[in-house]
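Bumping with the actual sequence this time:
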Amino acid sequence: MKLKYISIFWKKLRRNWLLHFRIIVRNERNLSDVISIRLTPRRVFVLGVSISLLIIMLTAMLIAFTPLRVYVPGYTNPVEYKLYRKMLTRLDSLERINVIQQDYLNNLYNVLNDIVVYEEMNAQMEGVSEKRIKDNTQTNRAIKQVNEAAEQLLMEIADRSTKNYIPLSQHVTSTLSFAFTMPALGFVVKPFSISERHFGIDIENEKGTLITAIADGVVIGMEFSEKEGNIVILQHSGNIVSIYKNIDKFFKNVGAKVKAGDPIATMGNKGTESNKPYLHFEIWYNGAPVNPLDYCILFN
């Protein structure tokens, strides 16, 4: 039954599809035609579809680019959206800080309990493909030259450290009985002083002078202070901590295991209190500062 009515409707539509109609607006005073529009069902259909699409487009643009979108379900208030973005950024920062703090606590726990589980954290090279690194012969050549220069410098330091030395710990009575290597070559321009709250020594030399670890240990901290510049903290066995301040460049990352004499940084002058390149070096034992000159090896 329904198909019959549909068939009848379709025949009438096809029969009247091309019929012409005219809409006339006439002035009653003089019976003149003011507006005369010629229409067909096809034109009416096309005109109706075009007007509908135009209305839909205008409505979508009105909602998308005006504050009216706030009243549409699913859209967020602009102020709330900015607040959400700000909170998301803060949450991401807190997660990163939490990961760093957790790594620090894990490293400290393992060091204090003589558990060796550290693996050096290799710096990630972002934006450079492995294929490009292999194919870049100039980069490989430069790296090889740097490695050779570093090996020669380390051999020179090792030779100087094995020559005549005076362990000052033999002349000072203290609870410590260790002798460490000096962290850098240079002149001690400011000594250790508890009364002046200067808990270390200042070793002055040229910018870029190599700084080495005084003993085997683990990098447990890397910080920046506006007053003291870049800072590296090493944890050694026996509850000993060594601190290196006012440095220029880092060679190790947090969690890296180092041995005595390994390069960890270079000397700089990035702190606000430094006029010349120098290293501020501290040794802490059981949470208290000690004079580094009492336990470090001096070269003759």
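The tokens above came from a reply further down the thread. The two ends are 116 Å apart (CA to CA).
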